[in-house]
Amino acid sequence: MAHDTLTITDSRTQKTYSLPVENDTIRALDLRQIKVKPDDFGLMTYDPAFMNTASCRSAITYIDGDRGILRYRGYPIETLAEHCTFLEVAYLTLFGELPTAPELKTWVDDITHHTMLPETTRKFMEGFRYNAHPMAMLVSTVAALSTVYPDAREIHDPVNRLLQIKRLVGKMPSIAAMSYRHSLGFPYVYPDNDLNYPENFMNMLWKMVEPKYVANPVLARALDILFILHADHEQNCSTNTMRSVGSSHADPYLSTAAAAAALSGPLHGGANEEVLKMLDLIGSKDNVPAYIKQIKDGHGKLMGFGHRVYKNYDPRAKVIKWTAEQVFEVTGRNPKLDIALELERIALQDDYFVTRKLYPNVDFYSGIIYQAMGFKPEMFTVLFAIPRTVGWLAQWQEMITDPEQKIARPRQVYTGHEVRELVPIEKRIPALV
Ligand code: CMC
After folding, report:
1. Cβ-Cβ contacts under 8 Å for 178 (sequence gap 6 or more)
2. CB contact at 8 A, 203 and 406
3. Is 356 close to ligand 1, i.e. is its CB under 6 Å away?
């Protein structure tokens, strides 16, 4: 059978090389044979921000950015959001297949029985400053779980890995809720095993003195759908961090904390908080054209717009718009929606955004729903981290079990000095004035 190859002629040497092509990809290491002198290091690729480098093979999530397609394990995101619960999707993402009814029952039961935080962890969280950002609390607390579960270092034991996965998926909402209650000055609410995953989270967030908190089913389902939409998104910044830190064989709590730290940035998961700040700043529909002009003049970015991979409408944003309507029937319409719709309408007609293929991403509308549900903007990225933990762990597990993976260690193109002689301190000339 003929193999696909790429033929390269090196104009420096006139030598020709034939590199195998598989899945429209060449292996970067195949370039290393391309040298001018035998003792050269060999050719490398320069790819800041990994614009065109596949760092792994993955069977978890498929994205076609030009066609606006997102699938987990082959299932379209829209289908999963319509028919499944988040824990069902978590099972699919982590194990590759949708669960049968008995498998789901056991899985839900397992996760439910891992929602409790150790008392020392609760006390650890009580030590945060009264105005600590909930996302910073979450990152630190997830890392601190590494001290509670030293057995998590056994990353090559599949049984142990599964135990840590259940603990993390179970405890993430508890940590998130505790960070929220802490920022409000309210006591921690312990999990309630009678409730499902989103209802239990809502109970831990909002239960006050009533004997039994009853979650609004429409809001609980909306939260579950938002969790499904955020479960995984292949090799984004935080997932790449999870894989990179995990590749050093750090335990999953430390790796997840690192991934959550990456998520917190405003260009990634922190964008949903920034969208709300932006809508506040704009203030009213009438100010939208002036704001867009300001962006086009190079002052800032339209937060919640644009994506490295999607060059078409983000399919998650479509489901979120639909979910927003259900939520607003319960909570009343968030007035910020009108500003957001106007921003979208004007931006999608504007040459600046059209030519750069900038469309609303998942973060554009999610914050508006979260705010209508009663969350303050500082909580939005925490809400993103809960479901994304599933994706991080699925990718971590895939990386750990992939024989081709090693410790992540990119190369660099060195642009500094050649070797220099050390000048004694009294003879040095100030370099910076
Ligand atoms: N508003 C205005 N201009 C933009 C925007 C935006 N939101 N995003 C990109 N551009 C411009 C950018 O200035 C550049 O213009 P030019 O070609 O004239 O220099 C062009 O579009 C290409 O942008 P880029 O920066 O090369 O694209 P990227 O793939 O490196 O960045 C992004 C992707 C998501 C970081 C960026 O679009 C952005 O900063 N968006 C706002 C933040 C945001 O909403 N982030 C959430 C992403 S989705 C969820 C997640 O990942 O967590």
Report:
1. 117, 122, 125, 137, 141, 188, 204
2. no
3. yes
Tell me which of 268, 338, 350, 402 is the catalytic residue. Answer: 268
47-66 exposure pattern, b = at least 16 Cβ within 10 A, e = fewer: eeeeeeeebbebebbebeee
Q: How large is the average pLDDT for residues 366-388?
A: 93
pLDDT, one tens digit per residue, over 77-116 is 999 999 999 999 999 999 999 999 999 999 999 999 999 9
User: What is the Cα–Cα distance from 92 to 82, expressed in whole angstroms?
Assistant: 15
Q: What residues contact 169, with CB distance under 8 A and at least 6 apart? A: 90, 111, 114, 389, 390, 393
Candidate of 279, 297, 358, 383 to mutate for ligand 1, largest count of ligand atoms within 8 Å of Cβ: 358
At 178, the pLDDT band (50, 70, 90 cuts) reads very high
* Vertex 395: Cα angle to 390 and 397 (nearest 5): 95
Find, among 141, 152, 210, the residue nearest to 176 by Cα.
Answer: 141
- Is the distance from CB of 21 to CB of 5 less than 8 angstroms? yes
227 Cα: distance to centroid of ligand 1 (angstroms) = 24
Q: Of 176, 162, 173, whose CA–CA distance to 400 is shortest? A: 162
Q: What is the pLDDT of residue 1?
A: 46
Cβ–Cβ < 8 Å for 203, 398: no
Say whether pTM exceeds 0.85. Answer: yes
Domains, the chain: 1-45 (no CATH), 58-398 (1.10.580.10)
At 11 the pLDDT is: 98
